[in-house]
Amino acid sequence: MATVPSWLRRAVETAQTVEDAALASGAALTALDAVVRRDEKWAGAWRQRLALAAAATTARQAGRTEDEAALRDSFLLTRPGDDVGPGGVLLLAWRRLAARPAEDLLTAKNLTAVLEEFGFFARDGAAVGDLLEDLRQLSTAAGVVEMLTGAFASAERDGFGRNLGAWLADALLAQRLGWPHAVPLLGAQPASGGSTRGVRVRTTSLTESDQAPGGERVQGLLVAQARAALRAIDLSAELGRRADRLFGVAPKLRAKGADHVVDHLLNDDALVASRGDKRTGMSDRGLRRLFDRLVDLGAVRELSGRTTFRIYGL
Predict the structure, then answer these.
(1) Nearest to residue 263, comparing CAs of 287, 284, 246?
(2) Other CB atoms closer than 10 Å to residue 79's CB: what's the count?
(3) Element (DSSP H or E) covering residue 106
(4) Which pLDDT does position 2 carry in this prediction?
(5) Global pTM exceeds 0.85
(6) DSSP assignment of 149-177
(7) 165-178, pLDDT tens digit by residue?
(8) Cα(314)–Cα(268) distance, integer angstroms
């Protein structure tokens, strides 16, 4: 399982210039890339747990009160197509980033849906088209630092705000690195670096850009990206240990449909136990009994703290 070396944590927290921050961010992303490319069986749960954290931060920055538990409830305790509420819609945006193939994220149809999930309902096709053109240029011609700052600058210029900028930066990074799915990173970081309006970074000379107006803002974004990458690596190690325990007890499960439940736990943030699953043929009662056993075996955790509508995950 991946562990972050102490020197890398120090490099991220002690970066004094844009160049320092870029080097630290590059090293952190290289370590994260190794985790992604292992393509662990629990990677879906990992990405969705990161998406939940991003949604909670996004909700808090929007002045909402929902925490991770409330957002999880809004998604799991409603039927597909039901109203999940304003906070739940933010979670849908980040879950979209984590679940859809990276190559499909930056399309007109998908971006239109994401904008609506972030609360921008009255945008015309021209605004989406302008954003797509910016993203196309960033994905084909920009350096990694310029790609990061450009994603935020494009979103802010068009009035969409930093949360969409974080979403776009994560999507562009996944496409640049050839990842099959994006990893939600920047959404869970506190607002860093202020506005990126007017920021232009010449990636061939980070030292010069550090002295330019906006250099501190660029440095803030790079440090935020590095911290997010390290947090994702730490979570991968934690979930890897929990998944190993689940793998160890899975052969002992005799309930019909248990294999499907295990697969679901490995691919999503959590599963509600008060709702049977037609794909397994399990009733509500059978599903609850299975989860009770998994908890007794130390393979999953109950996440809601309730006696009814209980929710389980790695």
Answers:
(1) 246
(2) 7
(3) none
(4) 67
(5) yes
(6) HHHHHHHHHTT--HHHHHHHHHHHHHHHH
(7) 999 999 999 999 99
(8) 9
